[in-house]
C-alpha cells in the first residue's frame, strides 16, 4: 500500500482511517487469521501471487470476518443471526475514535457525572450491538443501547451476556416499552419540538421512539450516536452489488430515509439539550449532511462539527452538534479588560526646526498646535504622521506615513530612532 495518502483532485488529502484505529497501520491479515481460526478458513481465497482475500458479497464471509476480528483484536465474543445488519469493525471503530476526539477537545465543557466514566447512548443498537461492545472494550465507556425489534433486543442482550467483563458497562433498553411508560411526558414535550423545525408533512405518520421518552428524566450522557436507516425503500437499500452486509427493513429503511430519521434526532435533542454533551449521527449522503447541519443550527446548536469516515470504497460522514456554550466563549468572558495606551504623533520638519504634536486618548478632538513641542533635528523638509496603538500590554503597533514627500532613507532612519525611543520609554515604565 505504498505511495502515501491518496489525494483529491483539488490537491487536498483524502480522508483516511482514524490514526488511533487498530487497523490504521495495517489492514487485517486474512491469511494469518485463517490459520488461527479454522471456521474462517473456508471464506479466505489466496491468489497465485499469494494474496489472501475475502468475498464481501457473501454475508456469511463478512459475518465470520467480523466475529474473528472482534474476538482476536478486542477480546469480544459476538454473533448475529442470518439477515441482521453485519457491521465492519474498522469503520465502526472510526466513529468511536471520532467521538473520543470530540470528548477530549476543548470545544465544550464536560457535563457533571457522578461516576466519572464516559457514558454513551446508542440509538438503534441492533442485534450486533457493535458500538457499545467496541466503546466498552476499547475505552471502558458505559452505554445504553436502544432498539425496537424483538430480534435486535434479544441478540444485543446475548452479545452483552456473552462478554461477562462488559456486562456492567452495557444496558440494552427497549425503546418501545420506555416510550409507552413515558406517554404523558411525550404529550408535554411534543409542542416544544414542533416549533423548532419544519413540521412533518404527514402528521399522522407514527415516528419511532428515538431519544425523548427513551432517555429517563434523571439521566445524563456524554454523547449519543446512531447508524440511522439510510434508505427510503428496501429496493434502494439493495443497490450496492459489491457488498453484502445484511440488514432488516427496520435497520435499513424508514419513511424519508436518513434525512427524516436524523431530523427526528435533532428535534429530540432540543428537548434533551441539557442531558447530552454531544449529539452525533452517521450520515450516508453528503447532500443530506449539509441539510442536517443547517437543521442543527436552526434548532439552536451552539457547535456543529462534521467528519468523513473511509472504509474501502464506501464514504460516510459524521455529524455532531451540541447546545452547551463553547468553552472559548467562557474563557473570553473572564479575560480582564485591557488598558490601552494609544496616541497619534504628527511631525513636520522644516529647514529650521521640528514641530511635534502628541495627541492622547480623550484629547483627540483638540488641535495639534495646542499640543506641539519643539525638537532640534538635522533632517530638512519632511512631514509625516505616526500612529501608535498598544494592542496588548507590552506590544505596540506603529504606523508611519509621509504627508507630502516620497519615502526616503531619511524617513526610515527617523522612524527607527522613534521606535528605539518608544521602546526605552516603555521599558522604563515597566521597571
Overview features:
disordered N terminus; 2 domains; alpha/beta; seven-stranded mixed beta sheet; five-stranded antiparallel beta sheet
Write the layout of secondary structure elements.
Elements: H1 30-36, E1 44-46, E2 52-54, H2 59-74, H3 89-104, E3 119-123, H4 130-139, E4 142-147, H5 150-161, E5 170-174, H6 175-181, H7 183-194, E6 221-226, H8 234-237, H9 249-252, H10 257-271, E7 276-283, H11 286-298, E8 303-311, E9 314-322, H12 327-333, E10 343-349, E11 354-360, E12 372-375, E13 382-392, E14 395-402, H13 409-430
Parallel strand pairs: 3-4, 3-6, 4-5, 6-7
Antiparallel strand pairs: 1-2, 7-9, 8-9, 10-11, 10-13, 11-12, 13-14
Helix pairs in contact: 3-4, 7-10, 10-11
Task: Describe this structure as you would to a colleague.
This protein is α/β, with parallel strands linked by helices. It has two domains: 92-331, Vaccinia Virus protein VP39 (Rossmann fold), CATH 3.40.50.150; 343-430, no CATH class. Helix content is 34%, strand content 21%. Strand 13 and strand 14 form a beta hairpin. Helix 3 packs across helix 4 (130-139). The two termini are 61 Å apart. InterPro entries: METTL16/RlmF (IPR010286), SAM-dependent_MTases_sf (IPR029063).
CATH architectural label of the largest domain:
3-Layer(aba) Sandwich
Q: Span between N and C termini?
A: 61 Å
Number of helices: 13
Question: Which radius of gyration do the C-alpha atoms yield?
Answer: 32 Å
The CATH class of the largest domain, by name, is Alpha Beta
